[in-house]
Amino acid sequence: MxxxxxxxxxxxxxxxxxxxxxxxxxxxxxxxxxxxxxxxLDDCNADPAVRVLVLTGSGRSFCAGADLAExxxxxxxxxxxxxxxxxxxxxxxxxxxxxxxxxIAAINGTAVGAGMDLSLCCDLRIAxxxxxxxxxxxxxxxxxxAGASWHLPRLIGSEQAKRLLFxxxxxxxxxxLAAGLVGELCADEQLSSVAGELAARLASGPTFAFAQTKRLxxxxxxxxxxxxxxxxxxxxxxCGRSADGAEALRAATEKRAPNFIGR
Length: 263
Hints:
single chain; 2-enoyl-CoA Hydratase, Chain A, domain 1; six-stranded mixed β-sheet; four-stranded mixed β-sheet; 10 strands; Enoyl-CoA hydratase/isomerase; lyase; EC 3.8.1.7
């Protein structure tokens, strides 16, 4: 698996650690980085050695959002509306959100704009106590453009979403936890170990069943209850026919811990 300079990727014990690696730009997302991350997600999703993905940032920021230097350059040449950042970012957000494998955002510092949105596309979010969240859109006279308007009402409710987006005030980690923007806080120096422990638990679990569960949760909001029950039946049949399903039954019969392989 190739590792572009703007990204670092290391796979250990079924966990792919992906690090945004532009610390001088606070890990801002330019088009090349968006494209490389999209390709890396494809590689990880297809790699049977990868069971879980952890996304974090190098330096003091998780991700500062769109690369404003690239934005300004596009505006200077009259190409702000056509240079392709939004379309490229949307493709990445959709890929991350739709990934089969569990994803964890280990938020090590500021998460602004599309950087915050990147964390929202992950299944689980762990924040260091120094983490800060800021929507970053209305202060630039923009509306959300990387998924915040979809994720935030579902995660924290409509009123809190409007407060975060309209007022554009930075939220500290404690407020983010209280609102439901993240699921867990830890000391800054413990972020890697806490994320690693959670990732290890997921990596040893029935990742085929996780994939079916993720799909049910993603698609369920657009279905009626009878439709969702039919989808659950179909997913359950797939899980029951999987190698992990057979192993779970054997382990229960033999009174031992199961050894899941993700298939």
